[in-house]
Amino acid sequence: MSKFNPFNSTIFNKVIMAITGGILVLFLLGHMMGNLLIFLGRDVFNSYAHFLQSTGELLWIIRIVLLTSVILHVITALRLKFLNNASKPENYKIKSYVKSTLYSRTMIYTGIMIFLLVTYHLLHYTIYVTNPEFSEFHEQYGPKINTEAVVETNGVEMTVNAGEGIFNRHDAYKMVITGFSQPLIVVVYVLFVFFVGMHLIHAIQSMFQTLGVNGPRITPILINCSKILGWGLFLGFSSVPLSVLIFGLGKGVIGL
Ligand code: HEM
């Protein structure tokens, strides 16, 4: 008698896809809202970025959860593709109300593009491999002093000019505005978040289908909600690079 192996079950793998995908969608919503703070100015955006960096262990826990979700999501997607190819259609027990669309047929391609572009994004804005100068971008903030002085913060001595704040933090605002001052980078990011939106439109409705929330009445509503969320994330994310390129957002502030 053969033993039941959950890793060979389509439903088990789809549930893993839905849970890990759900975690990634929550991250994207939070990340987009954080990015939109850039419209409130340098101080607000840098305070937010500085707060994230200062959460220490919490930040690492979030990073580990995200990385685990991405790895499981990708492995399970490949596993499902293999299982779908190997099985006959009648083996799939849940009746699908979700039709094949451009979004569903391109999932594997948008997924691959997102993977490549996230890798580029991390090299660009998180570990600064493509632009090492970003690590040197710093901003003085906090109470301002009237004369030049040497200030010690966390054991590091620094000369602070008259009129500057006494604390020092990474200038994420200057980094993002400088990055998006190059039209090619803007095009790459807009394409990146376009693929994210396309991928999510099918992914979200598929997630509900997997979790059993489907039917002739509820599915069309969920499809519309997925479209609003997918295109909403696209617009929210792309508004930052496009505003820098088209309206020169922040360029005056950083002296570009
Ligand atoms: C125009 C769109 C985007 C902008 C402007 C943007 C901006 C940023 C910035 C500035 C950071 C570094 C934060 C810091 O360390 O201070 C960052 C980190 C990150 N972004 Fe984005 N991002 C965008 C889209 C995305 C998308 C679509 C994804 C995922 C699909 C994503 C995933 C990440 C991840 C995983 C990190 C690393 C978080 C960490 O571990 O510190 N970003 N992003």
What does it look like?
By secondary structure, the protein is mainly alpha-helical. It has one domain (6-137, 170-254): 3 helical TM bundles of succinate and fumarate reductases. The chain is built from 9 helices and 4 strands. It has helices at 10-36, 42-53, 57-86, 102-105, 107-126, 172-179, 183-210, 218-247, 251-254, and strands spanning 138-144, 149-153, 156-160, 165-170. The strands form 2 sheets. It has a two-stranded antiparallel sheet with strand order 1-4. Helix 1 (10-36) packs across helix 3 (57-86) and helix 1 packs parallel to helix 8. The structure holds protoporphyrin IX containing FE. Residues 28, 31, 35, 49, 63, 66, 114, 118, 121-122, 125-126, 172, 176, 189, 192-193, 196, 237, 240-241 line the site of protoporphyrin IX containing FE (HEM). Protoporphyrin IX containing FE (HEM) binds next to helix 1, helix 3, helix 5, helix 6 and helix 7.
Alpha-carbon distance between the termini?
71 Å
Computed structural class = mainly alpha
Strand content: 5-15%
Q: Kindly state the percentage of residues in helix.
A: 55-70%
Largest sheet: 2 strands, antiparallel
